[in-house]
Design a protein that fits this description.
Layout lengths: L2 H15 L12 H10 L5 H14 L3 H4 L4 H8 L5 H18 L8 H5 L6 H10 L10 H9 L8 H11 L5 H14 L18
Helix pairs in contact: 1-11, 2-3, 2-8, 5-6, 9-10, 9-11
Amino acid sequence: MNKKERVDFIIDKLEALYPDPQSPLDHKDAYTMLISVLLSAQCTDKRVNLIAPILFKKADTPAKMVKLSVKEIEDIIRPCGLAPAKARGIHGLSEILLAKHNGQVPDTFEDLEHLPAVGHKTASVIMTQVFNKPAFPVDTHIHRLMHRWKLSNGKSVDQTEKDAKRLFPEKLWNKLHLQIIYFGREYCPARGHVVENCPICSKI
């Protein structure tokens, strides 16, 4: 199976397994999604979905969030890890959203990546999952599977993103990145992966 055949097979298999993948992070709007994505750094989505609602009960808009102290935010989000940095980021970006963006989450990479604690991956998630603009966020699952499927060299997340965008049709990016994440969790884990039982790795 050559690379194009592998890509086509992967697309077809993921579409059959996950025809309608939804964001794994619970959210009601762009702001709550942005905060949840920020909280998810080095934390499971499951834990974020448990902790974020506690924070959002106190503050689910930038205007409410800036009324909390960084310490108050930190105490709530501590179970998500990296709490001091995340709390400063949440408070700081909320201030900037109010000062520069009328309290709204911007819909450009440039504006998003200028916010505290928002890197390219977080911006990519917001662009694709909130604003439905083409992006290919690369998390640990995608980075691992692209290398495992011999579609990228695995040397850097940046290279994996470039390879994914080059190999997969742009119209599929937004859906495909979620499909790969779900597949990685269910069938293709980092540890204990049994090739013979994997619907993709056993075929390519």
